[in-house]
Specification:
0% strand, PMP3, mainly alpha
Length: 55
Amino acid sequence: MDILRIIVAVILPPLGVFLEVGLGKHFWINILLTILGYIPGIVHAVYIIARRQPA
């Protein structure tokens, strides 16, 4: 499932973050980063998805 989220994060970074954490602070930070530059939004989204602790 993480692979799908990372693919979504590359295409549309805020959606990838939303799928991972919902409408929290990281979602809004990612919206801002994506507006300021597409690449920072992607980096942040992939970081948020990859940092999750395995269950």
